[in-house]
Amino acid sequence: FVALSALSVVATPLVKRSDPQGVDVSHWQGTIDWNAMAANGISFSYIKATEGTIYSLADSHYSNYRCFSANYDGAASVGIIRGAYHYAHPDISDGATQANFFLGNGGGWSGDGITLPGAIDLEKHFPPDGCYSLSQSDMVSWISDFSNTYFSTTSRYPVIYTTTSWWIQCTGNSADLSSNNPLWIAEWASTLGSLPAGWRFTTFWQYADSGPNPGDQDLFNGDITGLQRYGFTSLCS
């Protein structure tokens, strides 16, 4: 036997994962100084491209919304991994129509390592119910239609941005999409609360609606290597 006092024990310090910082922005932020963003430690960004089939932020007919291309290209030019998002309007057209509109106006994906898969923004819009007057089962079908259409073109399922409360109210807390679609949860708090049914973790966390950088403040659930890899392959595959 070896006396405990003779053992040399070296403790390995725990190192916190980096959780890369990101932002999501829209036309409300205008054209952004992406060099400053990179200097502030921003690693990724989601940029609004489309809303319903009402307008595209790259469409010159909507002069107030012509910030998408400048921001999308500007982020990439300084090494910030970026993706586009679509603000859904399930009340005005079907999921496939809106997915194709998104894909045709900046929402595509390529495995270049700097492009995130597109995201669909699902949140309360109009009263009285905030669910666009769709039943819970119809909402799940609408989201699935959007998701499958996006996948058929890009081979990637779109990220779902939502809140747990909206998901419970408007989909009945469906777990139907959790096996394929990465989750981006909006929870403006210092700690993450409960997630919608089926998801064991969130890929992105929008933890504040303002902060030191323009737009909403986000974290990626991983490290920078994982974020870069996410630009190539699906975390769900």
TrEMBL record:
Task of the protein: This enzyme has both lysozyme (acetylmuramidase) and diacetylmuramidase activities.
Pfam families on file: Glyco_hydro_25 (PF01183)
Annotated GO CC locations: extracellular region
Lineage start: Eukaryota, Fungi, Dikarya, Basidiomycota, Agaricomycotina
Record keywords: Antimicrobial, Bacteriolytic enzyme, Disulfide bond, Glycosidase, Hydrolase, Secreted
SUPFAM superfamilies (UniProt xref): (Trans)glycosidases
Gene Ontology molecular function terms on file: lysozyme activity
Family: Belongs to the glycosyl hydrolase 25 family.
Signal peptide range in chain numbering: none
Name of the protein described by the UniProt record: N,O-diacetylmuramidase
Record keyword Secreted present: yes
Matches recorded under InterPro entries: GH (IPR017853), Glyco_hydro_25 (IPR002053), Glyco_hydro_fam25_subgr (IPR018077)
A GO biological-process term: cell wall macromolecule catabolic process
Subcellular location, record wording: Secreted
Enzyme class name: hydrolase
Species the sequence originates in: Multifurca ochricompacta
UniProt keyword annotation of S-adenosyl-L-methionine present: no
EC number from the UniProt entry: 3.2.1.17
Reactions catalysed: Hydrolysis of (1->4)-beta-linkages between N-acetylmuramic acid and N-acetyl-D-glucosamine residues in a peptidoglycan and between N-acetyl-D-glucosamine residues in chitodextrins
